[in-house]
Structure formats: C-alpha cells, structure tokens
Amino acid sequence: MDYGTPAVVSVPELFGSELLTWVVVGLLLYWAGIIALRKLDLLPGFVGAQGPILTFHTKRGRDFLDWLSGPKRFWRAWANIGIGIAVVVMATMFVFLLLAAIAALTTPQPTGGVQQPRNVLVIPGVNDFLPLSATPGIVVGLLVGLVVHEGGHGLLCRVEDIDINSMGIAMLAIIPFGAFVEPDQESSKDASRGGQTRMFAAGVTNNFAVTIIAFALLFGPIAGAIAVAPGAAVGGVAPGSPAEDAGIEPNDRITAIDGEPVDDNDDLLASLDPNSDEVTVELDGERTTTVDRSLLVTAAIDGGPVDLSTGDQIVAVDGTDVGTEQAFIDAVGDDHTASLTVQPADDDEQTDTEVPIGAAVEVADGEPLDDATGQAGTVVIITAIGDERVHDYAALESQLADAEPGDELSIVSYADGDRDEAEVTLGEHPQQPGSAFLGIRGAPGTSGLELNDLGVQLYPAEEYLAVLGGGGESSYGAVTDTFLGKIGLALLLPLIGVVGILPFNFAGFTGGVQNFYEVQGSLAALGDGTVFILANLLFWTGWINVQLGFFNCIPAFPLDGGHILRTSTEAVVSRLPIEANRGMVRIVTTSVGLTMLISFLAMLFAQGWLAS
C-alpha cells in the first residue's frame, strides 16, 4: 500500500531532472574541451586523459612512503586484519546482492526511490538523498577516502618491496573521481601471493579505519556540543495550506502559539487549541503571523478506498463546517460513514462524497482477518472493533496493543462501500512473540488520508541528533546506545526519508536545518557555523569512507574485492589434490563477477520492469 507524494515539500520535484540535464550538458562541453587540448598537445606531461576523466600523475611521495613503511611487521599485521574484514564484507555483499536480485525477480514491485539508477551516482542534486548543500562535505569526504585508500595500496607496495611507477588522482571536471597507485608490474609479479593480497586489502582497511575515527569524533565532542533549539521544527510546508498562506516557510521554528511558548515538536500539538480556527504563530522568536486553519489532505494512498487527493480540502462533515482535525472527529462522532464536502485542489467547485471513516488497511493472505473475511489483497477501512469506534490507524493500533493472541474480536470494515462485520480470532505476531496479530498492513491517518489543519510537516531534529550521539531520545532505543549501532543508523540518515522511515533525509547540518540546532558548552566559543562545518565534514567523511570500503570489497574486477578473490582462489586451488591452473581460477572469478553484475542490474531495474 503506497502513499502518493506528500503535499508537504521543500524542494521542487523537477529540480533533480533539470539539474541532471545541465550536468550532462556541462560534462559534454568539458569532454570536448579535453579532446581539443589533447589534439593541440597542450596537456602537461603529468596529465593523462581517458575520455572525460583527467588523471594527474606524480612520483612525489615515494620517499615518504618508504619512510612510513619502516615498521613492516606492524603494517603486515594491519593489512592482515583488513583481509579478514574484506573477506567477510565480500561474502556479505555477494549474498546481499544475490538475495536482492532474487527478491526483485520473484516479487516484482514498482521501483523504489533508493533503487532508481540516478541514486547510484554520488552526485549532489542528482541523487535523491544527496542535496546540493551537502556538496562541500561530500567532496572533502571523497578526497579523504581516495587519499587514504590509494595511500594504503602505496604503503603496502613498499612494505612488500613492490616498486611504484607513479601515484595520482582522477578528476571528472572538478569532482575527484578516483585515486590510483601504479605499481611496477614486474616487481608486483615477484611479490608473494600473501603480499599481493595485503596490498589490495590495505585500501579498504584504511577506509574503515577513517570511518571509525570520523564517527567517534562526531558522536563524541562535536554532537555533544549541539542541542536542539527551542520550538517546533518546520521541515516542509504544504502548497496552498494555511501555513503557506500565512508566510510560514521550511526551516522556520514555531516558538509560540497564541503567546504560549512551544518547546519542541510534541509541544506544538499540545499548544494548538483543537477547536480554534485561527491561531497566532511566533516564528524563530522574532516575528508573528496569523494562521486561518483549514483541513487539508497532505497525503493519500495511490488508488486508495477514498477518492480524495493531496491538496484537497475538507470543508464540512455532514453539513457541519470543520477547520481542524478535532472538529472533523467530533463531526463524524460514532457514525461509521460520513458525507464530506470537499474543495478539490484543481477545481473551484465543491463536491460531496460519502465515505467510511476509519483505518485503511490491506488484508494479508492467509492471516486472521483474511480467514474471517476472505478479503486477501483488498484494501478495507476498519471502522470499529467491538463497541469501540476506530477513527484512524493510530486508534486501531492502540486497541490491538491491548489485545492478546487468541482473543476473538468483532470487526466492522468497509470495502468498495459494502459493510462487513466478522468475528476474528487474533493470531500471534510472527516478529513479536506474545503480541496479537490481525494480519494487516496499515496506512497512517484516516481512511488512507493524512489530514493536517496547519499544513506543516515537522522535522525530527531531536531524533537525528540523538542518532548522532547528541542529547535527546531516539525511537530506535537500545540501538543508539552502542557505537556500531550509531554508525549503522548514521549510514541510513541520508536516505531515511527516501525509503519512508522518517519524513526527511538528513544531509548534515546544512541546507537551513542549522536553524533547528544551537551550539552550547565549551565549543560554543568557536561559533555555530564552525561547529556545524566540523560536524558536516565528519559526517560525510565517515559516510563516504564506509561506502568506498564496501564498494571496493565487491568481489568483481577491477575492484579490490576482485583481486582479493583471485589471490584467495589461487591459494585455495593450489592446496587442492589436483593439478591447478589459471583457467580454474579464472572460472571462479569470472562466475562470481558476472553473478554480482547481473544481480546488481536486476536489483536496479528488474522490479520496475516486471511490475510494469
């Protein structure tokens, strides 16, 4: 059950596609310029060109690597640890991609946001979860990641007595696209198999080490110096909503309602008079505005049971004018259906529609509700459990939370306008032993609609700060109490809004969200701007480095994982009681590489293609 695009937005939807067009045009012009310079022989000798990519070569730094490689036993031990980590990650990546491909082929669904091909590109503004404002942090993180990765290869080359012809960095326009170390081919062949493996594993080892260091600094002194600023954080404003009409904008903080201070997001709901159609809102503690409340549909299920769309306004229920969510509930009362007077977003003429008011759910096949009603795969609206009226999905969850497996409940539901009442015996939740299970997949809100009488979507500022080690409480509980748990959640933050876990992505303290935070303690002397810059650099350095580490561990050429797979396969084959040859090794590496490539492409494209 999928919601349509919420009406509460802060960035135009077409921005990413328009930017991608300009990026492509710019790259083509840049490429043409490179070709012209190369034909005119104007490129310096240390600059190479491979298509639109420029490579800058240097022999400087080899003396430094020779000096740094002095404690060879230490660096070999360090790289051996990296080999173990790399092998585990390689196996995990292989299994993950294989299972993802199988799921995409066997259970096709419309392609999700994360699976869009553009989201594979780490290009801010093009990638859905990497905004332009995050560019400086991403570029610095990428530079650090590339330098330590290739520096690790170069260092282990010298530890294993492999000569280095040159080192350098590859640039795509102004974007650092990669770095490289060119080992001497002859001395590389002379190195032991173990030495080659350590050399290939050194890069990802350094990336993972930088990740740990960056996040340790972020979770410790930096995030500890940041606090959530007073007020409710406005992450988005619905077009045509009362908030937009009153001049409220994304990244504002609502600091008071009708003169009463608002401490945080939760306090906003408590501060709003449920029956008042007009409120005075203070923004950022500086200016006030008057909001005339009206009931707006901010999200709706695609093809849902109620024929309303995002942007529609509910103006009356059974002839009674309503301007707030509470007035809506009061007007519906105990009736299971209501006649809604609706002002469509794209039409000046109001319409009346009779709809059931309750919790919209999809009935799962073979589960308790399906056993009682035979409505598997159908979206129904549950309006009552026993004698208790259900007005929305939150009320349904609350009632089911008080039930136990084996309880028998009388459930009233509507499907396609037809009323059904059934006795349902609850099962046991498959993931939560001891909890009751009805066998449904629900949509938040009322009858598959999310209603908002102010027109703002709140940004979970405290949630994100808690994940990063700052103050406040997190809904993830014990996960945020461990260092590795924090890292795992931090890696999800840039795409957490794309997958729908929380309403907004977190791209660092940038793009205006700095207004939701303030710096305190000893670091306050540095100024808010400096601390936020440090936090952004650490966040993206940690995030980019772990991505580089995982990506390079993919067991396919020309990535490090492919080379480690080859040397590891050679080591295993050489110990088998058969006559080993390079063909056997090639079969293994080619098979694994092709499987990874096919799985990756299937994960990206198969679901959307099959579902269509």
From TrEMBL:
Transmembrane segments: 19-37, 77-105, 129-150, 208-229, 489-509, 521-540, 584-606
InterPro entries associated with the record: MBTPS2, PDZ, PDZ_6, PDZ_sf, Peptidase_M50
A Pfam family of this chain: Peptidase_M50
Gene3D superfamilies, per the entry: 2.30.42.10
Membrane-topology annotation of the record: Multi-pass membrane protein
UniProt keyword DNA-binding present: no
A GO BP entry: membrane protein intracellular domain proteolysis
Gene Ontology molecular function, alphabetical: metalloendopeptidase activity
Domain named PDZ: residues: 231-287
Keywords from the named record: Membrane, Transmembrane, Transmembrane helix
Protein name per the record: Peptidase M50
Annotated localization: Endomembrane system
SUPFAM superfamilies, sorted: PDZ domain-like (SSF50156)
Entry annotated with the keyword Transmembrane: yes
